[in-house]
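User: Just a sanity check before I run the rest of the batch. Below are the structure tokens for the first item. I only need the designed sequence back.
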């Protein structure tokens, strides 16, 4: 093999970085391992990750209880190849040369685990599709 192929980097962004972006980052990290660099952030981060989201992810064997919401920075966007937004609208900075995807997903804020499960499952399916593209 020749020199190491640079890993693609993906940034997931939602408003509070407490639900959707945390689930997406956790699924991509879980499924891709070291093949992809994963970041998540929020335009207005919450203090903690949504407990129903933590519980829903535990049900599928992924522990995100130690994660903390992070503030979205220009540097994080510039360092990412793919930026996936989830309902942050105009607050997400846009830079030329980046690939942007906007995933329309229900917001798990204020929802119980029963309402979070379908959101979690949709995110997992989208992540699996994204991985197929990145690996292609």
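Assistant: Here's the designed sequence for the first item:
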């Amino acid at each position: 093999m020749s020199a190491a192929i640079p890993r693609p980097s993906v940034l997931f962004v939602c408003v509070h970085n407490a639900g959707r972006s945390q689930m997406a980052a956790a699924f991509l990290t879980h499924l891709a391992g070291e093949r992809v660099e994963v970041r998540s952030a929020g335009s207005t981060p919450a203090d903690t990750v949504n407990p129903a989201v933590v519980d829903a992810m535990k049900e599928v064997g992924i522990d995100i209880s130690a994660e903390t919401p992070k503030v979205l920075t220009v540097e994080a966007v510039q360092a990412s190849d793919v930026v996936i937004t989830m309902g942050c609208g105009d607050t997400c900075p846009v830079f030329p040369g980046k690939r942007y995807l906007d995933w329309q997903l229900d917001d798990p804020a204020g929802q119980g685990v029963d309402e979070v499960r379908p959101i979690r499952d949709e995110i997992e399916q989208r992540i699996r599709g994204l991985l197929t593209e990145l690996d292609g």
